[in-house]
Request: fold
Amino acid sequence: MKLRKIGNTEVPEIGLGCMNLSHGYGGYPSKEDSFALLQRAYDLGVRHYDTAALYGFGRNEELVGEWMQPYRSEIHLASKCGMQGIDGKRVIDGRAATLKATLEDSLRRLNTDFIDVYYLHRWDKNNVAIEESVGVLAEMVQEGKIGGIGLSEVSAATLRKAHAVHPITAVQNEYSLWTRNPEIGLSAACQELGVTLVAFSPLGRGFLCAPELGLSKFAEGDMRLTMPRFQEPNISQNRELIKKLSQVCAEINCSLAQIAIAWLLAQGEHVLPIPGTVKIDHLEDDLGAASVTLSAEILSKLDDLFQPEKIHGFRYPALGMSEVDTESFACEQ
Reply:
């Protein structure tokens, strides 16, 4: 894989989102199978691994931390604070004491004394100014406990406020063919400020590469059960887009996953996709995107096919949408 910069570090251009191993979708793999997937990613050249205090309510950090010990010096490690599990429930809390305590817990679970990029998983926008939370993260940088500060699910305006307090290394927002909100303003702001745009859910939570997914396919506790895009009639309408995407894939002889990730890589050198999976064959397919080059003609087709007004359903239910700080297209308002 080619290299891209995140902060002052160059990493292979596709990272690994580790959430799926412990959180969000149910039906989690065993520790042994999780280690096998993490190892296969490493063997195929992945070096940027992304986890969070929230995922599995700490179990994901423990899993990644245990696996990576022989490779710690080679792994570019990202984790997150500001949204964690309390009594089995997700809680957003951006207060200084909470962020500091979460960092210490993360360092312990990851069995490391340093995290390369530490994100504010959600801005606690109703209670804490973004400048205050970033100021706390800046102290962590000065203490040598984290290498860079990240934000997640924020707008260009919030990024600029945060960057004025301390340089921001990365912003991690949902970005894919069917979630193009970063193009409203965030992506350009990242380019201007030298911030990496880390694209989570680059495969539309699996839908872009497995359009047969639907409510009957999901395990108990799968977050997609509550997401409007996966409800009828939205999901049937969205499947029509994937049928057309499959036709484009046939033209250039690549998979659905590969065209979706290759499209993101073509959006600029500042974009770093982090697909996640629990299956090694899916991982191998995802990483194959690094070998796919999309022509200007194909990029234009994809741009037209996935115009925001053609996507049916919000990406989160009402509560989730109220918690993020991302820009919205007119068709979403």
